[in-house]
Amino acid sequence: MDTVEFLNHNCMDCHDGPNADGGFDIASLGTDLSDSKTMSRWIRVFDRVNDGEMPPKDGGELDPDEADSFLNETSLWLHDFQKAEFDKAGRVRSRRLTNAQLERTLQDLLAVDIPLARLMPEEQRSDGFTGIADHQSISHFQLDSHLTVVDAALDAAVTRVTDAENHFHRDYDARALARARPLSRCRDPEMIDGKAVVWSSTLVFYGRITSTTVKESGWYRITFDASAINKPKEGGVWCSVRTGRCVSGAPLFSWVGAFEAEQQPTTHIYEAWIPAGHMIEIRPGDETLKRARFNGGQVGAGEGGPQNVPGVALHSMTVDRIHPAGSLSVARRNLLGDLNVKIDTKAKRIDLVSDNPLGDMSKQLRRFATRAFRRPVSEIELQPYRQWMRESLESGVSPIDALLASYRAILCSPRFMYFVEPPGPLDDFAIATRLSYLLRGSMPDAVLTKLARDGKLQDPQVIRGQVDRLLEGKYASQFVRDFADQWLDMSQIEFTEPDRKLYRDFDVVVQNAMLDETHQYLEDLIKTNAGADKLIRSDFTFLNSRLARYYEIEGVDGDELRKVKLPSDSPRGGLLSQGSILKVTANGTNTSPVLRGVWVSERILGTPIPPPPESVPAVEPDIRGAKTIREQLQKHLSDVSCNGCHQNIDPPGYALENFDAGGRWRDQYIQVNGGKSRRGLPVDASFVTADGLSFNNFDEYRKIVCDDIRPVARNFAGQLMTYGTGGSIQFADRYELDQIVESTAGDNYGLRSLLYAVVTSPTFLNK
């Protein structure tokens, strides 16, 4: 019995004609796998039969031999077709640098540190990722923005190179940090007992320090001493550090950091990009503190003290201009190489000193193109840029301007904008590039480039060694942040704002501590090669005193995030209990088992969930509390067209119901009526998994998941593969993905072992 005959024999009763169940008509299925929709339908059919979802329980049973034959034949058919397509054109088609990758590449290439991604249009995300080749596009508008970014980077490089080696440095005593006119009513700190003081308040921009307004955009190191005033009985005064224009016409802030001010002064150091015209704001940022009230939108001297509220006192501050991208000598080397030049810092001019300008510039052009294209450049590839440079010189353009014009052309070339990966096995330079953009988000460094030049990156042991090297120091944190921003939607954490009336303890300090918790937790798991089960459940997490208080965990002091062993009865530990995850899977006001269930299924468990049928309306939570969300969702389980998906969606969704939209634990829902809130119906987190396993609460659900952790490990490997190659996991990738996971079974599916296995796999090392 062939595949089509099998479907006709077993499925035609329910799936025939325009009114077929679930809108699936077998007659319209087709067999042309080159059509992406047909391929997707066949994969869906295979999965539903393979997972036992079809036929439904009341639809009879399949003959085991016929089912096995169908699955084997269909699997081979789909696999072989996709593999043949991969052999012809590659698994991943043309893939270009993402905004973040372009920004970091230009920064490394030119030793500049200006933020460039903000000059580009927002990118399309597919399953959270911005670098999926099939969903990338290039338009005239995007090309124009790319040119804008390139020009901005080159201008910054020239400005840096022609700058005198001077260092901006300014010291502020408390008087310089306070308001310029001591008796004026404004929002700057006031002088009290020789210190610049800011009281706890809801007043916007209160805590801005006008005297710190910078004249030039750049990176600055901010060092200050601060202490608490009227600190709470427990803990200190948690404060935020932000930058912005701090005026009503420009209300947005950039986050710098947070600290806990104590009775005795402590020193705090931060580094931040501050645009010209922006200033520093330091203020109590803990929403649980008692807050002062000020009339007229301004604060007068002496108005806050009598209200007996907490505050922060600034003793002194130092601001230094820094250049994280490299020293002046590095910047000049990256832009000009070994050229003999004369630099006039006053006129901002660079003159070439050479008896053979074209020859010397051609050597530097080759060096620059080799770094920009991330591989050796042939004479044919270099010729158009050399010709452009020669013609510019002949038309009277200065040598350096002619060279920069050629740089501009190189940086607009597809060889720079796109990954150069011919079909088949990757060469050493392509491996170096793919590995570097996975772990660094930027072009290969000197070590990787040399290994590629020496032909050593075909050796799996060498690749593993480079993984270890690149995950040392800052690169480990950078990789985790980049990966988590997309895989776990951490970049979307500010998309919603919890209702202050419902979630009074939530604030910007808590939110950023949540992000840091997730980042440091993942970094620790990868560093220690922790098993994949730790993604779901563990007896530790990373906390500071503010986040610990928010989670109602005692015994955590200080503002530094650190590894904390959790109490035995704590629901925390593992990604699913972390506030950042719980916030990005809610809408700011309430929670939905469907939204969270889909997210957990796709991002953690590796179970894809197709879009809901158009005929099924969305379910909105009843904020009046008359019905639980469970009661409203029951119809989805009784609907045949919905049940197949909801049996996967609902278990994790209900398991997380004890966590509210702000990430805190709750035993009862909040009922809102007439603008007032009170405790409503009790939370019921029990359900049954698609495999028929019952659980009563969140912890029991986590145990079920951890009893067979292979799907979680498989998903982690698949997410890494997608992120690293720019190609979503295809049907033909499944067998190799299973092999990757199986190879790490002896390490309890350790996350670092999974990373090793991914980057040394044929899928990663082939286009």
Notes on the protein architecture:
This protein is an alpha+beta fold. The protein contains 25 helices and 18 strands. α12 (428-439) crosses α23 (710-725). It is flat and about 85 Å long.
Overall geometry: flat
Structural class from helices and strands? alpha+beta
Indicate the low-confidence ranges by residue numbers.
622-626
Strand-residue proportion: 5-15%
Mean pLDDT: 91
Percent of residues in helices: 25-40%
Could you describe the largest sheet, including whether it forms a barrel?
6 strands, antiparallel
SS elements, strand count:
18
Distance between the termini: 36 Å
Count helical runs: 25
Radius of gyration: 30 Å
Brief account:
The chain has 767 residues and is of the alpha+beta class.
Please render the helix and strand layout as text.
Layout: H1 3-11, H2 36-50, H3 64-89, H4 99-110, H5 140-161, E1 169-173, H6 174-177, E2 190-192, E3 195-199, E4 208-209, E5 218-229, E6 237-244, E7 254-261, E8 266-274, E9 279-284, E10 311-322, H7 328-336, E11 341-344, E12 349-352, H8 357-373, H9 379-394, H10 399-411, H11 414-417, H12 428-439, H13 446-453, H14 460-470, H15 474-487, H16 508-527, E13 540-543, H17 545-550, E14 562-565, H18 579-584, H19 593-603, H20 629-638, H21 640-655, E15 668-673, E16 676-682, E17 687-688, E18 694-695, H22 698-707, H23 710-725, H24 734-742, H25 751-759
Antiparallel strand pairs: 1-10, 2-3, 3-10, 4-9, 5-8, 5-10, 6-7, 6-9, 11-12, 13-14, 15-16, 17-18
Helix pairs in contact: 2-3, 4-5, 5-7, 5-10, 8-9, 8-10, 9-10, 12-13, 12-23, 15-16, 19-21, 20-21, 23-24, 23-25
